[in-house]
Amino acid sequence: MTQRTNRPHVLMMSEITADGKLTLRKGASSKILMKYMAHETELLLHTTRAEYDAIMVGANTIRIDNSFLTVRYVQGKSPLRVIPCSMADIPLDANVLGTDAPTAIAVCEAAPKEKIEAIKAKGASVIVAGKTHVELPLLMQILKEQFGVNKLMIEGGPTLNFHMLHDQLVDEIRLIHLPFIVGGSDTPSLVGGMHINTEDEMIRLSLKKFYLCGSNLVSEFDVLYSEV
Ligand SMILES: NC(=O)c1ccc[n+]([C@@H]2O[C@H](COP(=O)([O-])OP(=O)(O)OC[C@H]3O[C@@H](n4cnc5c(N)ncnc54)[C@H](OP(=O)(O)O)[C@@H]3O)[C@@H](O)[C@H]2O)c1
Predict the structure, then answer these.
(1) Is 0.85 topped by the overall pTM?
(2) Rounded to the nearest whole angstrom, what is the distance from the C-alpha of residue 161 to the centroid of ligand 1?
(3) Hey, what domains does the chain have and what are their CATH numbers?
């Protein structure tokens, strides 16, 4: 387990429906839901991005949402965009490979060399972290030690959220609650991954704050890991 000092402070921030979903249905872009965020909440999201050294989303969110992950609605510097993509098969026309902010794609040692070179040719950095898949604790250590990332925010999706929580790499969670129910047993929710078997495996949170931002409820939690 990477010690807390060897990694950035990590905030997980997400827009979720009242039934805990991140999008309308499996495979749908969360940009559709995000259209319903209050303007004040969009400003909160972009202000938070500007306060962080780096922002990370999973490769599947890039494939589905084609996110920019930049600071656009407030003044401020866009953070380093970090995308874990084990085999380096991120679409080369993805918006995160544009030049409007720096980007690092995290891959594993098994990633094809030509795909790595194609990413580098787009101007992005490539971080090799792990043999057969991206090892998130190692990636966190590299981001801190080689890229000077002290504060990282992650914006999903559920697969990345699950692995970051499972590896005990998340310190805080901030949720923007959208007043909708979308349903669907396979609709992506805040945290995907495996089921737990006992209550001992529940990840405990401590509610820090809740407030209205425009018309949206925002809640903030600390993550309590028993071993930290
Ligand atoms: N409402 C919101 O705030 C919000 C935010 C983000 C996303 N979303 C939604 O979430 C959905 C996508 O979520 P998703 O769960 O399918 O995908 P995801 O979490 O965005 O990405 C998961 C992918 O990241 C790559 N990855 C590489 N190393 C990893 C590691 N160690 N741990 C975890 N992932 C790793 C893997 O792809 P490779 O196999 O290619 O390496 C993996 O399949 C979309 O519908 C999107 O709209 C909503």
Answers:
(1) yes
(2) 8
(3) 4-224 (3.40.430.10)
